[in-house]
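Is this the right way to post structure tokens for a design question? Let me know if I should format differently. Anyway, here goes:
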């Protein structure tokens, strides 16, 4: 009779080892995914912050007057029908227009570590010319009306003082009084409009409560101002950290500019309120047409592309020190006066700061690089205008 002898049962040693090993690998992978180095984030065109949402100095560092190159910016996109702007480099010409070049293009992502350029001192900074130059020391002019407005300012009645001074700026004043008005208005406008401080009786700004899901670029469009201005005013260094129910100060735009050619001066306004002035360089032989222009587009760190007819064919990269456009381009399109129908003109920085205050460009308006950076953040494409006067 056959029988089977029972075999001893083979015991499985340490059956938990494979399971623990698999869990450890999964844990390492998940930990790397969650705590590892930051990954690039893909944003849609609608969500992209564009040049409006710049990285700004920390709160308390006078963000409006900080150097424009302290902030890395993402470039605005060009309109499909954008025309070539004017540039100020030798040999960059076309047959149709003596100073026309191909449209400057975005240079790509901003540098991880932006370079800070300190603003020039008042002694070395080029100054605008003209009868109402406001570069004199801040001392009373002796005008009784200006003195009364100054007392309102010293008494803390900033909005009333601002109204009085802005009205005086449009009246007949001697050179000293006009310069004093500009200095006071620059100071008061900075405190009332371009700082975090809120004045309940100010009709030019509003305290806004951020709604769930809102982004600054859309809030800016509602008020006709770039998101970068909102960030500067409120000391916001990262637009992605704005949260629902947060209260922010927003100016009621748009901002505008007026250029007085005879004085080589660009004045910035919020509505009808004077904010401050910048010295400029203009086109030689009246090559900067007078009239009203609309801001069409903006580019940060533009690359210079010469046209086919240019003697010098080299494309000049955005960060090349020989780039004649500097670090910012504000494209213009003419809508009134001699400017009607004209395109390809713009406002940009310069690699020749000594040219500011002179008629030396090929048609565009040059500003010092730190000045054009500030103007760049104020001008809203499609809404802001630039009026060029004799």
């Amino acid at each position: 009779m056959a029988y089977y002898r029972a075999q001893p049962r083979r015991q499985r040693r340490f059956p938990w080892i494979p399971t623990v090993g698999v869990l450890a690998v999964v844990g390492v992978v998940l930990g790397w995914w969650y705590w590892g180095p930051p990954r690039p984030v893909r944003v849609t065109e609608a969500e992209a912050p564009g040049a409006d949402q710049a990285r700004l100095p920390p709160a308390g560092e006078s963000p409006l007057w900080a150097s424009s190159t302290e902030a890395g910016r993402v470039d605005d996109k060009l309109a499909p029908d954008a025309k070539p702007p004017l540039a100020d480099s030798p040999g960059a010409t076309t047959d149709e227009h003596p100073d026309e070049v191909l449209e400057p293009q975005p240079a790509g992502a901003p540098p991880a570590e932006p370079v800070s350029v300190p603003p020039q001192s008042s002694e070395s900074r080029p100054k605008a010319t003209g009868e109402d130059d406001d570069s004199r020391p801040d001392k009373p002019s002796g005008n009784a009306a200006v003195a009364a407005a100054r007392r309102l300012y010293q008494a803390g009645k900033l909005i009333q003082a601002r109204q009085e001074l802005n009205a005086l700026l449009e009246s007949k004043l001697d050179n000293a009084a006009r310069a004093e008005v500009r200095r006071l208005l620059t100071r008061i406008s900075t405190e009332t409009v371009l700082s975090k401080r809120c004045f309940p009786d100010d009709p030019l700004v509003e305290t806004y409560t951020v709604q769930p899901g809102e982004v600054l670029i859309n809030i800016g469009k509602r008020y006709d101002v770039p998101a970068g201005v909102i960030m500067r005013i409120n000391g916001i260094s990262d637009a992605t950290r704005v949260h629902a129910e947060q209260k922010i100060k927003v100016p009621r735009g748009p901002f505008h500019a007026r250029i007085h050619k005879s004085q080589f001066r660009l004045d910035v306004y919020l509505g009808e309120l004077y904010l401050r002035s910048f010295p400029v360089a203009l086109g030689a032989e009246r090559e900067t047409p007078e009239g009203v222009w609309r801001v069409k587009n903006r580019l940060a760190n533009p690359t210079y592309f010469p046209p086919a007819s240019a003697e010098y064919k080299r494309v000049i990269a955005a960060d090349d020190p020989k780039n004649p456009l500097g670090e910012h381009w504000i494209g213009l399109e003419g809508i009134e006066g001699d400017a009607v129908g004209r395109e390809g003109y713009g406002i940009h920085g310069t690699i020749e700061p000594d040219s500011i205050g002179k008629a030396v460009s090929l048609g565009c308006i040059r500003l010092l690089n730190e000045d054009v950076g500030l103007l760049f953040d104020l001008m809203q494409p499609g809404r802001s205008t630039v009026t060029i006067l004799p």
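Format looks fine. Someone answered above. Worth noting: The two ends are 126 Å apart (CA to CA). The longest helix spans residues 17-35.
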